[in-house]
């Protein structure tokens, strides 16, 4: 019996996937539920398991975009399982014989008459260049067929005060993955379909540095995760979203949808590009809860094991370009959300404190927002609320009880 394996739907609104990699070869014997391929959707990379045991015939190539429901391979369930260490491939030997026949036929064809060129003789275009510049062709080494001097050889040989030439000028082409193409579409749509604006501020990270230096070892030994910056920023964002609910809203046609929960998307750089897993109901999580969830989602994203459900939704996004050394940026909104916070690197800078110059660890922060539903007053107030919470975390994020907040 021949079983047709079709592309299952990875999630709502996904209409096609891309064959990222076949894990088996044409003619292999596969077991039921064995992973036979990795497929890319516009949200994640998923494994495609075999629906039955038998010999497989592939119907799509790596890199092909295949519609959901289309046949990607056939499985002959009547094929016998190979014994012992014998080759599981049942591909016919005729293919090898055909290959040998093609090679023999090619060898039997009469050789094409080879055109010859005199070594050191310039092509017409090369001769014109050399004559104009007064360069003797005998001083030029030809790279063309049989030593012929090409136009490129002549250009390289002529001294120039302009742009340098003669270096490596190669190029290559590669097909964008479906994930990268979808990210590109969404970014362009965000720029074209929203009234995006960015506001900036700076944060003195001294208080957070002091708390982390004091409690990070005990925190890690007790909870098994590090006390990083993401928990502070997530808690600060949740507080600010509760103060400015318009930032926790989205446009749907002629309506504005506001949420009474905070699903925070965290931008993560994965092996196949940018992924944005979601921390659900972040308003209910402790510092330990946020750090554990960030670690879990980041590991899954980087190992390509993140699911579509774990990247669906989100009411606000945090992206950290600082881990790559970014000083300042204007992050692009993650549609259909209405705002995104950009974190950046922390650098010791001179600041004014109590009427004197002091050196402090400073981070520049940016909030890009959709001006259609978020006014400038709200966006600035939102970012100021984040700044206040980060500069005074013990009072505004920990209710003046650090040990309880960190569950020490």
Keywords:
OB fold (Dihydrolipoamide Acetyltransferase, E2P); 408 residues; 4-stranded antiparallel sheet; extended; Chloramphenicol Acetyltransferase; alpha+beta; Dihydrolipoamide Transferase; 29% helix
- In whole angstroms, the N-to-C terminal distance is 62 Å
Query: Could you name the CATH class of the largest domain?
Result: Alpha Beta
The CATH architecture category of the largest domain equals 2-Layer Sandwich
Integer tally of domains? 3
Question: Main β-sheet, in a few words?
Answer: 7 strands, mixed
Q: Mean pLDDT, nearest integer?
A: 85
Query: CATH-wise, what's the superfamily of the largest domain?
Result: Chloramphenicol acetyltransferase-like domain
Describe the structure.
With 408 residues, the protein is an alpha+beta fold. It folds into three domains: 2-80, Beta Barrel (OB fold (Dihydrolipoamide Acetyltransferase, E2P)); 124-157, E3-binding domain (Dihydrolipoamide Transferase, Irregular), CATH 4.10.320.10; 196-405, Chloramphenicol acetyltransferase-like domain (Chloramphenicol Acetyltransferase). It is built from ten helices and 19 strands. α6 (230-243) crosses α7 (287-302) and α6 crosses α8 (376-391). Mean pLDDT is 85; it is low at 85-92 and 111-117.
Topology record:
Elements lengths: L1 E5 L9 E7 L6 E2 L4 E6 L4 E5 L4 E5 L6 E3 L3 E6 L17 H15 L15 H10 L17 H7 L20 H16 L2 E9 L1 H18 L6 H14 L5 E4 L2 E4 L5 E3 L1 E3 L2 E3 L2 E2 L7 H16 L13 E5 L18 E5 L2 E8 L2 E15 L5 H16 L1 H4 L5 H4 L3
Parallel strand pairs: 12-16, 16-17
Antiparallel strand pairs: 1-8, 2-4, 2-7, 3-6, 4-5, 6-8, 9-19, 10-11, 12-15, 13-14, 17-19, 18-19
């Amino acid at each position: 019996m021949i079983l047709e394996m079709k592309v299952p739907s990875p999630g709502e609104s996904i209409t096609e996937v891309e064959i990222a990699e076949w894990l088996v070869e044409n003619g292999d014997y596969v077991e039921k539920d064995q992973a036979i391929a990795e497929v890319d959707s516009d949200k994640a990379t998923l494994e495609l398991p075999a629906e039955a045991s038998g010999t497989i015939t592939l119907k799509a190539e790596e890199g092909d975009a295949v519609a959901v429901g289309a046949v990607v391979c056939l499985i002959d369930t009547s094929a016998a399982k190979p014994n012992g260490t014998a080759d599981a491939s049942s591909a016919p030997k005729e293919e090898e014989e055909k290959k040998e026949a093609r090679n023999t036929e090619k060898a039997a064809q009469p050789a094409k008459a080879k055109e010859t060129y005199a070594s050191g003789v310039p092509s017409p275009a090369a001769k014109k260049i050399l004559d104009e510049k007064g360069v003797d062709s005998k001083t030029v080494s030809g790279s063309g067929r049989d030593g012929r001097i090409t136009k490129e050889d002549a250009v390289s040989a002529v001294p120039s005060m302009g742009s340098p030439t003669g270096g490596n000028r190669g190029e290559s082409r590669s097909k964008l993955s479906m994930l990268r193409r979808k990210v590109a579409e969404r970014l362009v749509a965000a720029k074209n379909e929203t009234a995006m604006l960015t506001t900036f501020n700076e944060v003195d990270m001294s208080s957070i540095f002091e708390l982390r230096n004091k409690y990070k070892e005990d925190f890690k030994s007790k909870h098994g995760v590090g006390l990083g910056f993401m928990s502070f920023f997530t808690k600060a964002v949740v507080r600010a979203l509760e103060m400015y609910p318009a930032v926790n809203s989205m446009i749907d046609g002629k309506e504005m949808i506001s949420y009474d929960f905070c699903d925070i998307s965290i931008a993560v750089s994965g092996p196949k590009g940018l992924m944005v897993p979601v921390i659900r109901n972040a308003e209910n999580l402790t510092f330990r809860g946020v750090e554990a969830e960030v670690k879990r989602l980041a590991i899954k994203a980087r190992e390509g094991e993140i699911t579509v459900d774990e990247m669906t939704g989100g009411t606000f996004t945090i992206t950290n370009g600082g881990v790559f050394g970014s000083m300042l940026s204007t992050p692009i909104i993650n549609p259909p959300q209405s705002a995104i916070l950009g974190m950046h690197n922390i650098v010791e800078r001179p600041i004014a404190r109590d009427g004197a110059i002091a050196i402090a660890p400073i981070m520049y922060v940016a909030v890009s927002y959709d001006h259609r539903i978020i006014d400038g007053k709200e966006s600035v107030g939102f970012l100021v609320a984040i700044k206040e919470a980060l500069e005074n975390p013990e009072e505004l994020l920990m209710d003046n009880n650090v040990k309880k907040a960190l569950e020490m």
